[in-house]
Amino acid sequence: MFVLTSHGDYAKAALASCELITGPLDNFSTVSFNDPMSVDDVVQQYQQIYDKNTQSEFIIIADITNGTPANAANIFKGTHPDVKIYAGLSLMLILALATGTPIDEAFKQSLAMSGLITNERKVPASSKENIDKTSTVDPLVNVRIDARLIHGQVATMWTRSVNATRIMIVDDQVVQSNVQKMTLKTAVPGGIHLSILTAKGAAERINAGKYAGQRVFLIVRNPQMLKIMQSAGVKFKNINVGNMSMSEGAKQIAKSVAVTPDDIETFNALSKSGIHLYHQMVPNDHQEDLMTLITEGK
Known about the structure:
By secondary structure, the chain is of the alpha/beta class. It has helices spanning 10-22, 39-52, 68-79, 91-98, 103-112, 152-161, 178-187, 199-207, 223-231, 261-272, 290-296, and strands at residues 2-7, 28-33, 59-62, 84-87, 140-146, 166-170, 193-197, 216-220, 238-243, 251-254, 257-259, 276-279, 288-289.
């Protein structure tokens, strides 16, 4: 159990922000210190959470050292020696913990990611090694439709979940926009290669075996890009429809998926060719059959 605690509602807001990316997190709780609360009041809140805890560990993460939330945690630990206390609460830290990163490593990652955002991307030498260019294994480890392309869920959860070594953005319009390309280069996780290609260019490179031995996470904004790639000879086994924004003429079939008649026609064609289409926002969510959602949404 992770107990996030802060002056005011910072801890609560940070957890809410994280859950926008990860979905509900059952192993996190929050404690807010507000006037006219006392140290004893905070200790009592820790005790209430502790009494209900079913996790093997009980870890309190305060916003700052020597503040009332941290001081109350130290008092609480006096009668609960098994409790662990840390300080330095941040959204990046919570995201790392939410994806299963051990807490000491999570702090290291949070610190490493807290520097100034620049346009430079450094790919560690280790990511360039151990690539078997003779491999015949399908390099596409995940194919996702997501109108937001690279964002929090993709950068912090999906990329790690599928153990991707390269993110491939396929979008004919993005290729022509220097601003969008620079934004994507900034958003891609450190150590992950990035390709931004047209549907035709991506198909040519995949068919030519340019990504042999790599683990490619392919992301498009709409199914039409995938249909073009399929027509050019790229074979897809599964397609995850994660997020499609509402647009004119579209209808909502899931919380984060809205489809137009053109989208439905494309999905029908992809499905009839034997591709499994499903909806899944984050890795921990249950997969829902997309064609069933479309049918039920009529």
